[in-house]
């Protein structure tokens, strides 16, 4: 499928990477995402928060090609993305999942190698014949994969089976696998779910380090301390709609956000 051109809007903070415009996702009579637009620029860490069932994961699925939005448009670096996860990864967006999706009976290293397949060129015939091109590429892939494992702190466990890693390390492995596709934008769906405070702090550092490598990050998270420490901007989804978007102080001080989290309607003239 071809990727068609649109115009990428450069912004004050840098080049726009992801531009979601007026995205709507309906499941029968339920509008899970209702007209949401969001831009992520190069060098940014953007947070997506909202109460349970607000539509955050559904929006992620629309961005990453798992769902075809009912309406709206998603582009990356000015190219409209085809709604196919493989094509989205190839274009430069990688993600992790709320419910960890690793190949549990494969080793840690093999899991990262799977993440590299969108960046390898040698075809299936070459792989079967194990020609020189394939062997060279395989060696390069392994070296790169080890580099990503080193980066997330799992190099010492490269030969362990993924299923034997503690939960927090499985989340790190998912991040290494996503990074192995060399994305420009990484989408993290609840990266600290199930982590203890120490692991959460380490994940915070890891996300900063990812940004410092030149990868922008869009992150869904329920841990507010994590989000407000980390993010340049935060968008709040409530019942499928974007209620507020701004820096930490703006969002934290917004009465409507507080009301949405407490489950009480906010009256405009209070
Ligand atoms: N495949 C689907 N079919 C039908 N309804 C769905 C589907 N996926 C999500 N929904 C509904 O869409 C709404 C938004 O769900 P979603 O999982 O996106 O919310 P969320 O903000 O990610 O929630 P949480 O914080 O609990 O993960 C919910 O009402 C959910 O039940």
UniProtKB/TrEMBL annotation:
Top-rank lineage group of the source organism: Bacteria
InterPro entries, per the entry: AAA+_ATPase, ABC_AA/LPS_Transport, ABC_transporter-like_ATP-bd, BCA_ABC_TP_C, P-loop_NTPase
One MF annotation (Gene Ontology) recorded for this entry: ATP binding
CDD domains according to UniProt: ABC_Mj1267_LivG_branched (cd03219)
Signal sequence region: none
This protein's record includes keyword Nucleotide-binding: yes
PROSITE patterns per record: ABC_TRANSPORTER_2
Positions of the ABC transporter domain: 18-264
Keywords: ATP-binding, Nucleotide-binding, Transport
Gene3D superfamilies: P-loop containing nucleotide triphosphate hydrolases
UniProt key word Signal: no
Name used for this protein in its record: ABC transporter ATP-binding protein
């Amino acid at each position: 499928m071809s990727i068609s051109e649109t115009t990428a809007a450069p912004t004050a903070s840098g080049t726009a990477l992801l531009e979601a415009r007026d995205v709507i996702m309906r499941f029968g009579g339920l509008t899970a995402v209702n007209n949401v637009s969001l831009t992520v620029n190069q060098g940014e860490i953007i947070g997506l928060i909202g109460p349970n069932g607000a539509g955050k994961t559904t929006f992620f699925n629309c961005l990453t090609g798992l769902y075809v939005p009912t309406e709206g448009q998603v582009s990356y670096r000015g190219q409209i993305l085809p709604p196919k996860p493989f094509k989205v990864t190839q274009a430069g967006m990688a993600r992790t999942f709320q419910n960890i999706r690793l190949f549990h009976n494969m080793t840690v290293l093999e899991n990262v190698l799977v993440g590299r397949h969108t960046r390898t060129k040698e075809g299936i015939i070459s792989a079967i014949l194990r020609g020189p091109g394939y062997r060279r590429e395989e060696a390069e892939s392994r070296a790169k994969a080890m580099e990503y494992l080193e980066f997330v702190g799992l190099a010492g466990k490269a030969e362990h089976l993924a299923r034997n890693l503690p939960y927090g390390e499985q989340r790190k492995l998912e991040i290494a696998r996503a990074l192995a596709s060399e994305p420009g934008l990484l989408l993290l769906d609840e990266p600290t779910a199930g982590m203890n405070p120490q692991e959460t702090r380490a994940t915070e550092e890891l996300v900063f380090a990812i940004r410092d490598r030149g990868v922008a990050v869009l992150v869904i998270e329920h841990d507010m301390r994590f989000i407000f420490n980390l993010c340049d901007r935060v968008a709040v989804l409530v019942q499928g709609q974007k209620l507020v978007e701004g820096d930490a102080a703006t969002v934290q001080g917004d009465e409507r956000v507080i009301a949405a989290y407490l489950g009480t309607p906010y009256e405009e003239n209070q």
